[in-house]
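Standup notes, structure subgroup. Blocker cleared on the zinc ion input:
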Amino acid sequence: MRGTVATPDNSPILPCMVEPVLTFTDRGIYCPAGDFFIDPWRPVPRAVITHGHADHARPGHGTYLATTGALPVIRHRLGEIEAETVQYGETRDIGAARVSLHPAGHLPGSAQIRVEVRGEVWVVSGDYKTTPDGLSEPFEPVRCHTFVTECTFGLPVFTWPEQATVAREINAWWAKNAAEGRTSLLGAYSLGKAQRLLSLLEPQGPILTHGAVEATNAVLRAQGYALPETTQVTPDFAPRKAKGALVLAPPSALGSAWARRFGPASTGFASGWMRLRGIRRRRAMDRGFVMSDHADWPGLHQAIQATGAENIYTTHGYTEIFARWLNSQGYNAQVVSTEFGCEDGTEGEEPS
Ligand SMILES: [Zn+2]
Ligand SMILES: [Zn+2]
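Run returned:
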């Protein structure tokens, strides 16, 4: 066995001499039967990757396996890597493990990873969202014995409004700002949230983008994802062109000198964290829109129930509280410590 085992040498459904389908090591989630890691956080020879966010797709691995939809963004972020792709649902035998990737609904190309060894099935959720957003391939529940689930928003307070409702709020905010001569500065992570927002905008003026957002747009457009027309803000950008515009930028850019060129502006941020008043205030945004690329509290329950799994490992978020709650509901749940959680690699940014 590799690395130090962080938790489950006492996995209850297995005879003690048989290795579990997946183990939890200091380099990441490991499959002994297939000798590969899932979303490892230290360099490993063989990695299977759920999606392109920086906490899941890291540099330095020998080979990468991802969905056809996810690889272009991973390549864009990591440069030249040795990689193979699979379609959703396609199976691949790696050693004695049978592996397949299934839609996670988190962002375009994102996947859950199903691993079957000797008839026993484990699924690693990666990050997931159970409600369709019109851009990402919708989440598909996968039956399994053991489910390793993220729980970024694993508290009852986190419930998301309908996407159409939030889209109306954002478009109304933009219209009002445009009418009053203000630029609308909307903060969103450059991979996933930004493109999801773009697909929901009803243009009331030009849509301008920060370079980080535009680079990801270009990758996804080349894959065939339909996004509205955008104009990247370049150093020679003339401020008068910002009249009535909505500017889409990573949250870190909004408080910077970069954002001041647009003149009078209203700032907004779209994130699941906007559900919490305290965080809204700390962010010093004029408007918070509650929109997340992760499952909300009811979504987590539905997803877990739909797997039919008895054993649940919680990662990524309110792991302790969520595991305790699952145990109270009759599941056999425990916490796994991982290094997931910082979506964009942007220091101090919560996953949204
Ligand atoms: Zn993610
Ligand atoms: Zn994540």
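Discussed briefly. The longest helix spans residues 163-179.
Next: hand off to the docking folks.
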